Amino acid sequence: MKKYLILFLMIIALSSCESFLDKTDPTATTFQEFFVDEDDLRRVVYSTYLDVFTNRDDRRLLFYMKDGRTDNAYARSEGDHHQRIANGTMNSNTRAFEYYWTIHMKHIGRLNTYIANIDVPYVEDEAVRQRYKSILEGLRIWHYFEAVMRWENIPFVLEPATIEEAKAEPLPKAQVLDSLFGMATEIASRLPEGEYTTDKYMFNRNSFKALIMRYALFNERFELAAQLAKEIMDSQQYELYHSYRDLFQYEGDARNREFIIHMERESVGNNNTTSFRDLGPHFRTGGGESQLVPLKSLIDTYWTLQGRPIADCPLHTKEEYELNPGLNRDPRYSASIMGHGDTFYGEEIDIYNANNPMYYENQRASKSGFWFRKFVSDADAFRSGTLTYGLIRYAEVLLTYAEAKLMLNDFDDLAKDCINQIRRRAGLDMTVADITLPAYSSYTQQQWIDLLRNERRIEFAGEGLRYEDILRWRIAEEVLNQPALGHTRIVNGQKVSLKIEDRSFLPFNYLWPFHQTVLRVEPDLRQNPGY
Question: Where is the signal peptide (predicted)?
């Protein structure tokens, strides 16, 4: 990995983090001067999270923006990369793939150096050193999980490399994953069991287990996913917050036991967060830019208050639901989405009125006529926001256990209760939506799969999980070969939906290409088929 794993220690170690250079000796020019005490260890861990995983400002990395790669949403700016991934206008020269490969490899290289030199800094308590070491090793695993999911067969290097040593043969994905899951289990056992009072975003034992659980599910290691989910449930450290709507607003963002990895203020250097800018309507301020907006495909996925698909409801027709998305709908719809006819900051949204600031043809308006309400507070309409988020939350643990057990053909009472907990908290009519009722007793395996996948889609809408889901379920060829549509109305007696763009997904797009620049630097890499 001649370019990306060569460790330019001062350049890499001192990059990206706004507060990272707040040191007693800002004139340090060597690694030995820089990496000397416990504060240095903390800064290294902090910046490694901030540069990639808790980045508050780079839309290429922000977790909610990743829904723009899917049938859930449309990402407005081509330069953010998500739009091109969703519409299929990509190849081995698409800059996105150099960007993401570089950022993961750069951080893996830097982490290899810090971990190898973990005994250098002076600390008064050796337990502190071991905690930071475990967190750094966990972050390295997180980068590798992301890289192997995107490119499959990759080099796997765990030591600092010289120019001569940096070049490494790619290993098969299965072999890399075996190593990662084995290492991850051992690291989890070394992490402190409880959450920290400060720096809550840093891994503890259960939050790192939740991360391993996520990638175990993504990679069809269902036994491990179910086991870890059960261990997290049994820890009783987390619970569903009572209000789904408030969980993503100021009322609940910092007052819940649902967020397992919490993208809190400390994780972004106590700076403002940008969800209103990215997701909110332009309204009467310059704050909202509608960078990511929901699509009709997602809107129609919200089932009814009784937990039925809108095409199978005896109360209203599918067309009635399409024309009136708030009609008899799962309450997670109004908690997550707003659009034509809804109210924002005391004013009715009219996307077809050219005098309305949210007119759909305005430059910063929503091309779909919908916006995410999740992560968007009216209070931020005239200010910079400080709303914080959960990168992994307890609801994911419950639905992971249910899915893993279903795929293991062991869909037990606890798995069904996990789904019921999610539905009950959402506010569904459990006299009909309770999946232990006789109406569900004749469900086939495929019906359960459809139900669970839909629960997962609407529960995590706008939270960045949909892209992995459509890839691992192998449905991307179906859902991303449909046009991106928006609000639907009757025009001259015909049902018409706003059209944003056509999309395309080819069979080989399940993997990303290596950028041509990367291949020139790394001749041992093999381009993924189709590119």
Answer: 1-20
Q: Is 103 helix (H, G, I), strand (E, B) or coil?
A: helix
Asked whether residue 350 is assigned to any structural domain, the reply reads yes
How many domains does one find in the chain? 3
Query: Has this prediction a pTM greater than 0.90?
Result: yes
Place of tokens 């992971």: 400
Do 344 and 372 touch, CB atoms closer than 8 A?
Answer: no
Same domain, 169 and 41: yes
- % the chain with pLDDT above 70: 93
CA-to-CA separations, 263 to 50, 53, 200, 390, in angstroms, rounded: 10, 9, 8, 6
Measure Cα distances from 327 to 55, 128, 302, 485, 490 in Å: 37, 54, 11, 20, 17
Domain-ending residue, one of 428, 447, 463: 463
Q: Which domain holds residue 304?
A: 274-377
- Per-residue pLDDT tens for 160-172? 987 666 678 999 9
On whether both 330 and 237 belong to a single domain, the answer is no
Answer whether residue 370 is part of any domain.
Answer: yes
Percent helix / strand / coil, the chain, rounded to 5: 45, 10, 45
Say yes or no to pLDDT of 9 above 60.
no
Residue 6: inside a domain, yes or no? no
Give the tens place of pLDDT for each residue, 196-212: 888 889 999 999 999 99
Which pLDDT score, from 0 to 100, does residue 98 have?
97
Geometric angle at alpha carbon 530, from 525 and 531, rounded to 5°: 55
